[in-house]
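Can anyone check this?
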Amino acid sequence: MKADITTKLKNICKNLGENNKPTYVVMAIAAVKGICRPSFTMMDKKEDPKTKKYTAIREGLTELIAIPVYWALGELSAKAAQKHLPKDLQKKGAKNAMFLGVCTAALFVIPGLCSAVIKPIMGTFYHDGVPEKKKIKKLDVTSASEHIEIPARSAVVASTDVKRPNLQTFSSRPEFGMKVGGV
């Protein structure tokens, strides 16, 4: 009995390993993220309820968009590879093309779709169907009521022994922590 269960488990694992597609893996990950991330966000007791709700809906919508895009680009890439590759390379080439399709979806297509789709949807939820107007402060430059003096700059000669930061690798952002809502 125990050997029979072990054999069945080995066969299941073998079949999953041999017949697995990259698209299925990322779709499964997206589905779990679409369920768990909003749930964990809503369980945060320290965060403002409005912020939690907004973040949870946004995270869920992102994964809702991601799942069909992963599937479509993965399958389309695999079909294109099978159509254009020689017979002996079609099976391996299709899986590699599917992987590249999934990567393309994750890097370019999904962020673009989310930017185009989620903002209007969230605007509908949180502004009674009318997006919030941005308040623009106008500067009155015609008024001569105030006179502002701008100090003149003096030329500064740099010394040769001063160490300057490497601006090619310099980042003004903190390189730690996690921020909700993007970069």
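Reply from J.R.: I decoded it. Residues 2-126 form one domain.
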